[in-house]
Structure formats: structure tokens, C-alpha cells
Specification:
This protein is mainly alpha-helical. It has one domain. It has helices at 3-8, 14-22, 36-53, 56-69, 73-87, 97-110, 117-128, 131-134, 138-151, 161-167, 169-199. Helix 4 packs across helix 11 (169-199). The longest helix is centred in the C-terminal third of the chain and has 31 residues, at 169-199.
């Protein structure tokens, strides 16, 4: 799962959303330095990633990319799934995507001092280029792929991932739709469990 899915799977809880969003920049037990609800968001993110990486539907999507994307297939799938979430947003959330995203950017500004430095550095680019909203467009996803290609020092084929998406567009969308129903249920149950544990 990529940025938008992790935010969505925080179920409109602010501190959980922040933790879920920053988790990749918080290593090991450093999550314990954050407020309790942010900690829970980080733990939720890690659980979502474990569930996703081991899921047969996600493996099916990833396998479709192996010939061209190799080691980076899983990263490409995460981004592709965010595209389908953004594209079909109205099926999953009552708040329009543009408003949801704007609210989240405002939330990030509110929590700016809590954010890891890496995320603080990323934030101006994310907001100015409106990454989360533009995931709904293939052109927006293509910009993400090309950015990732540059960050891998051109050692990946992610600059070609748009072609992979378009070639198997219906298959990827079917995979996403089936998988996302399962990850929603998993995330709801996991979040409740983490919050219940925190109150003991």
C-alpha cells in the first residue's frame, strides 16, 4: 500500500493518519518516541504492509510485473493500487477526494513539528504537485514512476511502469478491487485491537 491507501485505512482518525503516513521514516523502536495514537498509526502501517506483502492477490499483481520491473515489482504495485483507489474514490469514501486530500495536507501542517525530517522535506513537493489527488490520473502516476526511477539512480525500469499498467489495466483493477475489500476489514480489526491494547 502506498500513501493514499495508508491514509484512507486510518479511518478519519487524525493522529492515526499521521502515524500511518510517517511510518516508513520511523525505524525499529523509534516509534515509541511519538504520542500514543501516532504510535498506533505506525504499528497499523507495519501490520498493513505485512498483510499486503503476503497476500496472494498482491503477489499475483506483482508477478505480472516481474519480467519488466523485477525487484521493484512490489513498489510498482503499491503505486498502481493507489491509482485505483483515487480513481474509484467515490466508491470508498463520502468526502470528495479533493477535499479529503486538502484536509490531510492541512493536518500535516498542524503536525509539522512531529514529522520526521525526511517527511518535512518531502511535504512541500507533495502539496505543490498535489501527489495524492493526481494519483487518480495515469499521467500523475507516470510522474510518480519517473520520480522513483530517478531516486533509484536509473537502476530500475520504473520509468516504463506506465506501459505495464496500461497493458494489464483491467487485470490490475480487478486485483485491487478484490484485495481492497480484504485490507479494509483487516485494518479495521487491527486498529481496534491496537487501540484496545493501548487502554489496558
Amino acid at each position: 500500500m502506498n500513501f493514499l491507501a495508508h491514509i484512507y485505512l486510518s479511518f478519519n482518525q487524525d493522529a492515526i493518519s499521521i502515524g500511518n503516513f510517517i511510518a516508513d521514516s520511523v525505524k525499529g523502536k523509534k516509534y515509541l518516541h511519538y504520542p500514543k495514537e501516532v504510535q498506533i498509526g505506525i504499528q497499523l502501517h507495519r501490520a498493513i504492509d505485512s498483510f499486503t506483502d503476503g497476500h496472494p492477490i498482491v503477489k499475483q499483481s506483482s508477478k505480472r510485473l516481474h519480467p519488466t520491473q523485477g525487484h521493484y515489482s512490489g513498489v510498482v504495485v503499491d503505486i498502481i493500487y493507489d491509482h485505483f483507489l483515487a480513481k474509484n474514490w467515490d466508491s470508498y469514501h463520502q468526502t470528495p477526494l479533493a477535499h479529503f486530500v486538502a484536509n490531510f495536507y492541512h493536518l500535516l501542517e498542524t503536525y509539522q513539528q512531529t514529522l520526521p525530517k525526511r517527511v518535512q522535506q518531502l511535504l512541500p513537493y507533495m502539496v505543490s504537485q498535489n501527489w495524492l489527488y493526481n494519483y487518480k490520473y495515469i499521467e500523475g502516476i507516470d510522474r510518480v514512476f519517473k520520480g522513483m526511477y530517478r531516486r533509484t539512480k536509473e537502476k530500475s525500469n520504473m520509468h516504463l511502469a506506465k506501459q505495464d499498467l496500461e497493458k494489464n489495466y483491467e487485470e490490475f483493477e480487478a486485483d485491487f478491487t478484490a484485495f481492497f475489500q480484504e485490507i479494509i476489514i483487516f485494518s479495521q480489526e487491527k486498529l481496534k485491537h491496537l487501540q484496545d491494547e493501548a487502554t489496558i
